[in-house]
């Protein structure tokens, strides 16, 4: 009897897992099929995916905060990308290069992105329940104004004299190369420099948070703070001293780190972290902390073992990682997690779940939604800077057109929906979407024999992913509610509207 009951529970759990992850499973199978059909070299695919991951992930992570606040998928991140592009234009004109030019772009684009986000948030508050449509339309409108500014106003209405940037005496060139200016400004920062910078940032963050908790009257574990500061100091010393040690400098002092070396270092770091935290916290067997540390150690060992497989090791050796870019991605993910646990983040979640309840609790719903939109827009601006410095080419007129489309498609592939999105879903989505983005045209070429079809295939998958994901989310919502045939349309409308459940009854 008990055995049959356990089997039934196992089957039910498996069915629930398959249903909840149907979008991810479908695109995993589709990616595998395209890889097999294309016959492409795995090392080439891995290199492209890792490159695209570093280039696009920040833009996808910019979608999480507004989704949490009940705004759905923010197609309006286009305005953040436009803020970044305007700053790039001026920085290139002034002649700033490298990391200093990149930081200046970030400093210039931030206030513009906040202002654009404020306007976008005001629009969202006027179009509650239809934020995605409003963001999409506003993105088109903003792109039109941006084209008017770059093609006619600059050099025409506004006097401007720069033959390297102007086309026919007025209007910016349709595209210009960022080589020698901002290309690889972040990507080419070495692992050692990244380690030193992260050590300084981690020490400052630890000190500030400890002082803040003490000021708020919270208990501060001095041993934990001291341990974190010690780790930060070790990181700074290693990053600086490593440049003077030939073997270390040879392996980690280059612009980019070989994936094999990153795997070894990451494995060692994860194991050391798990052991240190276990010795410090002494978690009980079966506790949540114990399970987390055990999972970290298990994943680290599994990744290290995979490096011993000849075929996998060959791929690891062929891929190079821009460490600082990946560190920025980690910062974006950490920021999202940190914000969720703050009072502001809790307010956003409350607003996203039910606006009527949030209003009854005394929360300023409109203000909270505007703040979420501004944060998303700023992150999108920084993400566009990461994208362009990696791409190395600035298409002045059309660079911003597909920012929202590709970001939304990627996060939906990862299993997110218009009501809930996480860092994990964003990361999984970027990997799956861009794997498919790389191999689908190659597979189509093998099947049809026409390479020109590749761009049509890419656009088909971009729009198709959004349609399929929304349809599957509607199906999931319908199954949970078990609606009648007459009410299915209403359920699908509700799935497409992030704030439908929050309307006052």
List keywords for this structure.
globular, disordered C terminus, 4 strands
Descriptive notes:
With 505 residues, the chain is mainly alpha-helical. The protein has a domain at 25-186 and 322-502. It is 73% helix and 2% strand. It contains 21 helices and four strands. The chain has helices at 2-20, 22-38, 42-61, 64-68, 78-94, 98-126, 131-153, 191-215, 222-241, 246-252, 259-281, 288-306, 310-318, 323-340, 343-353, 355-360, 365-391, 403-413, 423-448, 454-481, 488-496, and strands spanning 175-177, 257-258, 320-321, 393-395. The strands form two sheets. A two-stranded antiparallel ribbon has the order 1-4. The radius of gyration is 24 Å and the shape is globular.
Task: Please specify the SSE layout and strand pairing.
Layout: H1 2-20, H2 22-38, H3 42-61, H4 64-68, H5 78-94, H6 98-126, H7 131-153, E1 175-177, H8 191-215, H9 222-241, H10 246-252, E2 257-258, H11 259-281, H12 288-306, H13 310-318, E3 320-321, H14 323-340, H15 343-353, H16 355-360, H17 365-391, E4 393-395, H18 403-413, H19 423-448, H20 454-481, H21 488-496
Antiparallel strand pairs: 1-4, 2-3
Helix pairs in contact: 2-19, 3-13, 3-14, 3-17, 3-18, 3-19, 5-6, 5-17, 6-7, 6-17, 8-9, 11-12, 11-13, 15-17, 18-19, 18-20, 19-20, 20-21
């Amino acid at each position: 009897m008990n055995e049959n009951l356990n089997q039934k529970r196992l089957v039910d759990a498996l069915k629930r897992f398959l249903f909840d992850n149907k979008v991810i499973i479908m695109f995993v199978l589709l990616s595998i099929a395209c890889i097999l059909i294309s016959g492409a070299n795995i090392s080439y695919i891995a290199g492209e995916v890792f490159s695209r991951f570093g280039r696009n992930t920040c833009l996808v992570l910019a979608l999480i905060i507004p989704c949490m606040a009940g705004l759905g998928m923010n197609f309006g991140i286009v305005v953040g990308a436009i803020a970044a592009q305007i700053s790039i234009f001026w920085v290139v004109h002034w002649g700033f290069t490298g990391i200093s030019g990149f930081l200046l772009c970030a400093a210039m684009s931030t206030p513009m992105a906040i202002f654009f986000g404020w306007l976008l948030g005001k629009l969202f508050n006027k179009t509650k329940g239809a934020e995605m449509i409003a963001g999409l339309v506003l993105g088109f409108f903003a792109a039109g104004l941006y084209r008017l500014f770059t093609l006619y106003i600059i050099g025409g209405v506004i006097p401007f004299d720069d033959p390297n940037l102007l086309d026919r005496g007025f209007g910016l060139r349709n595209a210009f190369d960022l080589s020698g200016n901002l290309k690889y400004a972040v990507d080419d920062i070495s692992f050692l420099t990244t380690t030193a910078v992260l050590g300084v940032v981690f020490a400052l963050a630890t000190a500030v948070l400890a002082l803040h908790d003490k000021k708020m009257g919270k208990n501060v574990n001095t041993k934990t703070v001291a341990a974190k500061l010690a780790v930060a100091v070790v990181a700074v010393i290693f990053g600086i001293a490593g440049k003077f040690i030939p073997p270390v400098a040879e392996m980690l002092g280059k612009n980019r780190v070989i994936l094999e070396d990153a795997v070894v270092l990451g494995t060692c770091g994860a194991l050391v972290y798990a052991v240190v935290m276990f010795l410090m916290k002494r978690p009980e067997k079966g506790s949540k902390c114990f399970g987390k540390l055990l999972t970290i150690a298990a994943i680290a060992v599994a990744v290290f073992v995979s490096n011993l497989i000849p075929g996998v090791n060959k791929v690891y050796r062929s891929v190079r990682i821009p460490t600082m870019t990946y560190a920025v991605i980690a910062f974006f993910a950490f920021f999202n997690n940190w914000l969720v646990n703050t009072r502001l983040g809790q307010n956003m979640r409350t607003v996203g779940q039910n606006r009527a309840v949030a209003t009854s609790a005394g929360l300023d719903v409109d203000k909270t939604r505007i703040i979420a939109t501004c944060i998303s827009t700023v992150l999108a601006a920084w993400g566009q800077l990461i994208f362009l410095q990696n791409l190395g080419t600035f298409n002045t007129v059309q660079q911003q057109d597909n920012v929202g489309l590709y970001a939304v498609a990627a996060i939906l592939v990862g299993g997110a929906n218009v009501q809930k999105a996480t860092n994990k879903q964003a990361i999984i989505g970027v990997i799956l979407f861009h794997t498919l983005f790389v191999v689908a045209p190659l597979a189509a070429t093998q099947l049809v024999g026409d390479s020109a079809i590749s761009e049509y295939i890419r656009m088909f998958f971009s729009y198709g992913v959004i349609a399929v994901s929304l349809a599957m989310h509607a199906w999931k919502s319908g199954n949970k509610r078990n609606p009648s045939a007459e009410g299915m349309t209403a359920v699908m409308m509700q799935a497409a509207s992030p704030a439908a459940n929050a309307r006052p009854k």
